[in-house]
Amino acid sequence: MNTEAIKQQSNAAYKQWAEQWRAHAREHSKFKQPTFEKFENIGVGRAVLCVANGYSFEEEIETIKLHQDKVDIMACDKTLGNLIDNGVTPTYCMVCDANVDAEKYLEKWKDKLSGTTLFINVCANPEWTKRGNWKEVVFFSNRDVIDSHLEFAKLSGCPNFIPAGTNVSNAMVILLTQSDNEGRQNVFGYDKILLIGFDYSWRFDGKYYAFDEDAGGKANYMRHVYTVTPNGNFCYTSGNLTFSMDWLKTYINAFKLPVVQCSADSLLALGGKAAKLSEQMQYSFKPEDRGPVKSAVKELREIKKRELELLTKINSIGRDHYWASYRSF
Length: 329
What we know:
329 residues, alpha/beta, 3-stranded antiparallel beta sheet, 8-stranded parallel beta sheet, 12 helices, globular, 2 domains
């Protein structure tokens, strides 16, 4: 999709949903608005597991339970409850949608979130912010091609921006890295970003979502495509799923992000055969480097700030001398 097509799609969505998004942003202005700073390079030396709602999440739930203490875990709205029901407390939860159902996907578990940080779009359903006993709530606004993020940041007071993506699953990877047109980044600093449930398809005899075979009819009406997985297995998928899959693959490859696909039969193939989740969740390499990295980044920012101050001073003096010389003729 070219830039003009993206603008048209963004404008159409804005026209349809802007009123609701504004109301949610105003509601979120009543909450504290922390920055991302405390999360910068928090994952140095470790892996984080992003859990989307594809069938491979359910297939690997025992592995996730067994090794949960060795990684940080990021849930999305629809995987939060199933993780908690299986004895897994996510480190983070990601919510992006203005209409994602808090009654269905949050209410039952709202008192079990004291160990989980919520990352939520300022335009998302504010019931998620209000109901949960979250460890912390951190807001962000999606930076898009029509600059709508500036409007919603002003309404809410939100200081954080991340590049706009295609769905909540992809947004987990975006949040953790925040690479954009200005260059590659890895803001949270994890050595590895592991994916499970990022299947972008469902099997002929399988479930559309993890722990949910029919998904409210989606298993039937979303059958846009019959295709074959990289492993040669037949599956169903949809136009939306394949678009999101292509988008994330392009994003990962363009910025050479440390993303590891752990779903063995996903349409999202990253550099060949999928990795074994049980092995990847046990990854660790010098996590004690986190402190020195954080200190070095802070020092570098202070140096850059001082550099800007000195350049401003030099330019000001130079400007005075230029005009003095000009007036002397």
